[in-house]
Design a protein that fits this description.
By secondary structure, the chain is of the alpha/beta class. Helices cover about 40% and strands about 20% of the residues.
Amino acid sequence: MDNSAIKSKIESANTALGIELGSTRIKAVLVTDDYKVVASGDFVWENELRNNIWTYPIEKVWKGIQTSYANMAASVNEQYGIKLTKIGAIGISAMMHGYMPFDKDGHLLVPFRTWRNNITGVAADKLTSLFNFNIPERWSVAHLYQAILNHEDHVKDIDFITTLDGYVSWQLSGNKNTGIGDASGMFPIDEATKTYDAKMLEQFAGLPEVAQYPWNINDILPEVLLAGQAAGKLTAAGAALLDPSGQLQAGSLIAPSEGDAGTGMVATNAVRKRTGNISAGTSAFSMVVLDQKLNKVHRDIDMVTTPDGAPVAMVHTNNCSSDINAWASVFNQFAKVLGVNLSPNQLYEKLFDVSLRGDQDAGGLVNFSYLSGENITKVQDGRPMMVRKPDSHFTLANIFKVQLYSAFAPLKIGMDILLREEHIRTDVLIAQGGLFKTPVVAQQVLADALNTPITLMSNAGEGGPWGMAVLALYASDTKGKSLADYLDSEVFVDAESSTLFPESESVQGYEKFIDNYKEALPAEIEAGKDMKLN
């Protein structure tokens, strides 16, 4: 499609905007109604540890959204010579889970508590026992119940709780709702009714410590919407929030907001049963769409849904690529001392490539890439740490091989439950995320770690915001199709992909590494206890 055709689509608002608030970047992507990205903009941010709570200040949420939108709109003007005034549909995605409670005047009662916090262990355990359903620590209901158990003063003033994407969507449309995939990270969903589980709502409301409050859990959760439904329209106030310059007009369709897990499933065409995807970035998670019920409750397997409500087994890890980035930064500093300037792509390519010369078990090295706690391995407070024995093979190649190995280690431990205990099988497992921007290397490590073929699609590095834009287009016109059929027949007809298969020698080497990793876990746990944060 040439620039004149793209310009015409933008001017006639045959477009969708996907905005995703990721853990390290907020990105805005403008997509035409043939699913092509025509402009984008972003904003880099990072979570902050305030009073031992991982958070993002609310003012940075809007600074990031406005900056990424402005950069995207500037790109439209630069490439096509027009100002962006109308958008057909808008969808908001963000990091799932967490806790944002508001009072009746719409004021945030406590700073946003992100998925990264593992401060709700008591609440999560009690609710899991009550519901006979796994409640992870990062889920909104766990945060709410922990605040109740802690006798936090703000709880009495709660009028509404939501997630980050639910909050942004509310501010744009005026409507308090969210997509079912995102809602499934707030409170358990009933697959039959496609909304919160009524029995569990009643059980929660009946707890004596909950019943003392003036609100009812039914009334403070956002309305649950399915992909393809409308979440509202962009209001004048919402348009001004997105675009303070005043150029953007109100009236765009707002799609049900979704968590980054849901947009990842859409971006990798993994919403049909027996499909699955893995997203690897600051955190990592795998999503497997189930065609059978699990035999029992697993504390390391979260039950969530696709954006259209199908049950999904999710393995979520709090840590993945952050430690790789830290080590890469150190080597970049060393390169500069030598007078060598490398672009980020060159740097990662060289470091990933050197890992290919490492030993299959990473030379006996063990690395814990834990900037925060890790629920799957029962680590309360994370401390990035590399451990080696005197006879370990300590080389540059092994240093970076163990970085890649350790990035996927908690995910592998969780996935082994699905693969080995529940015997869940998938027809395809598709990977996406920034870790795969460097070709082949991380993809092969993941295939070896899970001992299963891994497919990478051409949009693997930028899936989330594009996936949200696709959901916005689907909300505009479902074409009378289910989401799975829509993706197959409309979006991914000519999709390019590549598949790597596990290599037996590397699989054995990774298993040896993971045995060493598990043996060294007590040292990581003690480091978190003994090395206190300032």
